[in-house]
Amino acid sequence: MTTSTLPPNTHHGVGVSPGRAAGPVVWVHDRLPDPLPGPAPTDPAAEAARIRPAAEAVSQRLLARAGTADGAAREVLTMTATMATDPSLLGKAEQAVTEQGLPAPRAVFEAAGEFAELLAATGGYLAERARDVLDVRDRLVAELTATEPPGVPELTGPSVLVARDLAPADTAELDPRLVLALVTEEGGPTSHTAILARSLGIPAVVAARGVLATNAAGARVDGAAGTVELLDRTVEPVAATHDRAEWNGVGTTADGHRVKLLANIGSAADAQAGIAAHAEGSGLFRTEFCFLDAAAEPDIETQRNAYAAVLEPFAGKPVVVRTLDAGADKPLPFLAIGEEPNPALGVRGLRVAFDRPDLLDRQLTAIAAAAAQTGAEVSVMAPMVATAQEATWFAERARAAGLERVGVMVETPAAALTAEALLDEVDFVSIGTNDLAQYTFAADRMTGALATLNNPWQPALLRLIAHLARAGLEKAKPVGICGEAAADPHLAGVLTGLGATSLSMNPKALPTVGATLAKHPLQTWQEAAQAALEARTPTEARQAADHL
User: 316, 365, 439, 518: which one has the fewest Cβ atoms less than 10 Å from its Cβ?
Assistant: First the structure.
């Protein structure tokens, strides 16, 4: 086995941000002690009245931090601030004070804990937000008890952070000059922590089981291989080393084979970050931002203005707009879908529109209007399509709204296995590797114990992608990648070797991916792709590319 050459004190996880670094370990304590129930308050109404001012104070501090951040960090801090003042969470905590006689800190603790458990049990996107809720809980409890919230301690020098998990709001403000690498025992490759680590260029390994059972003083981290060597002695800090080179802004292999390098965006700030990173366009414009805090469906004009603000920086460039990806696993107040026994497998994505086609039609009208207003070369695609019949239904409605170029996301094995039929109905497909992995392996992508199954280097996942790429070549239609897999430089090369025609990713990853792709001709990437397909494990598949 290849792992036999590694030191015995090496832990394996999932590499989510490439680069190698070494340095002294700083342990991050991830939570406060549980507040005790304590005696019932003598004035329950006054005790309950403490909760909302505390929440407002927490929210304002987070918003102030968001004001000095940008890109993904700003988005995460703003979202956490909004969550801190969530009416349903605060209302439940207040009710626990007035009806159960709990002190405010304990009431917040229990209300947020129940909410987080519900999200974790739901699976999918909402399970990823459970960690955010626990972060908000601890901040509210700290505010109510006048104590310091848990989190990253003040660093006195360059360090490797090791934690059970990191709160996204803490990750958003890490200083790459002091944080050499991140290691967590829990978490998954699509968590906010992983995404932010990539955006900051900090090597990171998640789901490294067993790291908390050590008393390491130093660590060596390989964020590409997903390995963490823990040492009982300190080591001199070694800043992160990346396989970086200059990129000219055009996605090509060394022999000139073109692969468009695009940005995943979900806000106007993301769009600006994409342009700053020389993105050739956007392969995934998430439109959920327009709906998340809305008590009622935004009207067409409101949607048009919101979409236009994001599309405007991409005037003259291609942008693929994904229609609303919501449902029971991503609840919106005005949808009223209700509870489902397994929301990740329930009414979500395009399935919502089958019962509410008017909702989809209004969104498509707004997207078409925003495209005409801004001059962006807009295509539209639907999420969670499973059959060619569903693709046809969506394509007809999109074209009726004036959107000529129509595609679908491939996130289910059913869609991947019927690629030829799908491509007969639409102009392109885009592979969402995060969900495709989750559904292929029947493994919740936020469960740390299953993170290896959601590793995008899994040979089974690569074989599905290869099948889709062959179908695209046969039908002379594009097959793009818009999942987090595209942000891994060597995996991006392998995906190109498999036949992907475009790669869309976090804007921060674009220069490294572009430079790495240009190092080798297409044939070399094709050989690496074939070796990865024939591998037995994700580790062997990665080694096939790393040893070019």
Answer: 316
